[in-house]
Automatic annotation (TrEMBL):
It holds the Pfam family MFS_4. It comes from Alkalihalophilus lindianensis. The chain crosses the membrane at residues 7-27, 47-67, 74-95, 101-122, 134-152, 164-183, 208-234, 246-265, 272-292, 298-319, 331-353, 359-379. It is found in: Cell membrane. This is YbfB/YjiJ family MFS transporter. The lineage of its organism: Bacteria, Bacillati, Bacillota, Bacilli, Bacillales. Keywords: Membrane, Transmembrane, Transmembrane helix, Transport. It is a multi-pass membrane protein. The keyword Cytoplasm does not apply. Residues 7-386 form the Major facilitator superfamily (MFS) profile domain. The keyword Metal-binding does not apply.
Length: 398
């Protein structure tokens, strides 16, 4: 195995662990601890989550329109520093308004890291002929969720919820050291070309991109309800006798291999068809606790959710990059911005609904329905999976 692209890949995985697994998603298992200590309502918890996703939306838009092409690694490093600082600040602030601001800034940093790391790593893997490793790259989110959640009960026991945030920030600093060492701009990247035949890429035409963007936006709107409140739902359910954070660990475990599995299925079935199937499967997982309220249903729901949400991201971003390989940063930025817009709305609606109804059922049913509708929007693109597309192209890293 070539060591350089492998270390490059590990650096990308660590970037996603910091920005997504910790900076973005650690809020989900820490939320019940904060609500217990600070008496947050579900509506206030939803606003706090939406603030983060509003920042994610702004960051995704900026990453798509700013001229970042020549200095991607530099901006990635700056974004990692901001992400670590905001994670730490969440444990040092007790004022709700300040938390809203901190989570917003954290969201901006997360979006920059996701877009930049995706563009840098996917381009590097393309140049070195390692595109099959893309699923490994996106497993960083699952690893980040699993490993961070693993330490949360102990950190909370020793230092309360504030110490959880600070402890995760320290862990992020350690990971960032390796990102700094392993992800560097290559001086020869602008002249190195890898000319090869791509068989059965089966990418839809660029005119179909609006359908993908709309479906991905609905995915963002729907999935984030479970992504924000699943631990809180487990905490409030009398039949769930385990440590509630265990549910989020299951999500992480499901997410780790999911990107690889969905990528393999996409090669066999086609990207659009696989994307439709994964979104339908996710909608079932989201709605499951409403109709089957047991400990087992939470575990299955968490596993289905973990097994699909990053897989869907992998499929959608890879498909978008295939549709416009020469402009990957901008296309992924637009796609992520729509996704973030959905995320920004979802927690607020779910939080308000659950506060008024004193139940998460209506929010979960609505979220499942939205994801299912998104899957239906993609059905028109399945015909492109059946058209072999054999061509020779020249791939340049940026």
């Amino acid at each position: 195995m070539n060591k350089r692209p492998f270390l490059f890949l590990i650096g990308g995985i660590f970037s996603l662990m910091i920005a997504m697994g910790i900076g973005r998603f650690a809020y989900t298992p820490i939320l019940p601890l904060m609500q217990n200590a600070l008496s947050f309502t579900n509506a206030e918890a939803g606003y706090l989550a939406s603030s983060n996703y509003a920042g994610y939306f702004v960051g995704a838009v900026l990453a798509g329109i700013l001229p970042l092409k020549k200095h991607k690694t530099f901006y990635l490093r700056i974004s990692l520093i901001v992400s670590i600082l905001t994670t730490c600040m969440m444990g040092l602030s007790h004022f709700y308004t300040l938390m809203l601001i901190v989570r917003f800034i954290s969201g901006v940093a997360s979006a920059f890291i996701f877009v930049l790391a995706s563009s840098i790593v996917l381009d590097k893997l393309a140049v070195t002929g390692k595109t099959s490793w893309s699923g490994l790259f996106y497993s960083g989110v699952g690893f980040g969720i699993f490993l961070s959640t693993l330490f949360i009960p102990s950190l909370n026991h020793l230092f309360n919820w504030e110490g959880v945030w600070v402890g995760l920030a320290i862990g992020s600093i350690i990971l960032t050291i390796f990102v700094w060492l392993w992800i560097k701009d290559s001086p020869n990247s602008n002249v190195k070309k890898d000319e090869k035949q791509l068989i059965n890429t089966q990418a839809p035409p660029l005119k179909w991109l609006p359908w993908l963007i709309a479906a991905y936006g609905l995915e963002g709107l729907g999935y984030i309800v479970t992504g924000t409140f699943i631990v809180s739902v487990a905490t409030e359910t009398p039949t769930f006798s385990m440590e509630p954070t265990f549910v989020w660990m299951v999500v992480g475990l499901g997410a780790i291999p999911s990107c690889i599995i969905w990528s393999i299925l996409a090669k066999k079935w086609g990207f659009v068809k696989t994307l439709v199937f994964s979104m339908i499967l996710q909608s079932i997982g989201i709605a499951l606790p409403v109709f089957w309220l047991t400990q087992s249903s939470f575990i299955i729901s968490a596993l289905l959710f973990g097994a699909t949400f990053m897989g869907i991201t992998t499929l959608a971003t890879t498909l978008a990059r295939q549709m416009s390989p020469s402009n990957s940063s901008r296309i992924i930025g637009y796609l992520t911005a729509t996704y973030a817009a959905g995320q920004m709305i979802g927690p607020t609606i779910a939080g308000i609904l659950s506060s008024h109804t004193h139940s998460f059922n209506s929010a979960l049913i609505g979220a499942a329905s939205v994801v299912f509708i998104g899957a239906l929007l993609l059905v028109s693109g399945i015909r492109y999976d059946q058209i072999p597309n054999i061509k020779t192209i020249s791939i340049k890293s940026n």
